[in-house]
Design brief:
heterodimer, A: mainly beta, 6-stranded mixed beta sheet, B: mainly beta, 4-stranded antiparallel beta sheet, 11 strands
Chain lengths: 118, 114
């Protein structure tokens, strides 16, 4: 069974600063997918960024980037030039591929509550 | 941009009653999911559905729960004989086939069992 660990329950930074949220996971799979989801106070789950384990290049999406360390099973999210609208819960999630079709559910971490201070 | 929709946004029911939560996945998606999130806790996988049958289910998804795709657009979660501990946010998600494993979530239905 896979597990996802987010060791920072809450973080607070000033607007425009850079912040890094940590995530580690445990799996015996070699190929899998990792995601960061954002959950603002509205509680909608919004996909922020994804990473395929077979890709060595770290994914980036505008101000959001990841540091994927496969050997260490680490998948951190970096938010540059943080904005007030980035205030939210951030969940790291893991998805193994399933051969022969079908679909696996995501395994989520417990989340990090990120607060951006003005 | 297409999105997953869920109805109702909030459902209040009495313990022991049956509820049906409804979802309309993105139209060209073929994989469907239900998750739940008890207040203040992490999101938990319940069930996945593909090709008109359950693909995978978690330990949480016991005989009290069932899913159905009654027509070409809706995907429902039925909870029989609700319990207080079923109070949670229920999220529907969908994913298109192929190499993409991105799941797109609906806004959720907040279920309150009294």
């Amino acid at each position: 069974a896979q597990t996802v660990t987010q060791s920072q329950p809450e973080m607070s930074v000033q607007e425009a600063e850079t912040v890094t949220l940590s995530c580690t996971y445990d799996t015996s799979e070699n190929n899998y997918y990792l995601f960061w989801y954002k959950q603002p106070p509205s509680r909608q789950m919004i996909l922020v960024i994804r990473q395929e384990a077979y890709k060595q290049q770290n994914a980036t999406e505008n101000r959001f980037s990841v540091n994927f360390q496969k050997a260490a099973k680490s998948f951190s999210l970096k938010i540059s030039d943080s904005q007030l609208g980035d205030t939210a819960m951030y969940f790291c999630a893991f998805s193994p591929p399933k051969s022969g079709g079908g679909a696996d559910g995501l395994t989520f971490g417990k989340g990090t509550h990120l607060i951006i201070q003005p | 941009e297409p999105e997953v929709t869920q109805t109702p946004s909030h459902q209040v029911t009495q313990m022991g009653q049956e509820v049906i939560l409804r979802c309309v996945p993105i139209s060209n998606h073929l994989y469907f999911y239900w998750y739940r999130q008890i207040l203040g806790q992490k999101v938990e996988f319940l069930v996945s559905f593909y090709n008109n049958e359950i693909s995978e289910k978690s330990e949480i998804f016991d005989d009290q729960f069932s899913v159905e795709r009654p027509d070409g657009s809706n995907f429902t979660l039925k909870i029989r004989s609700t319990k207080l501990e079923d109070s949670a946010m229920y999220f529907c998600a969908s994913r298109r086939t192929g190499i993409s494993h991105e799941q797109y979530f609906g806004p959720g239905t907040r279920l309150t069992v009294t």
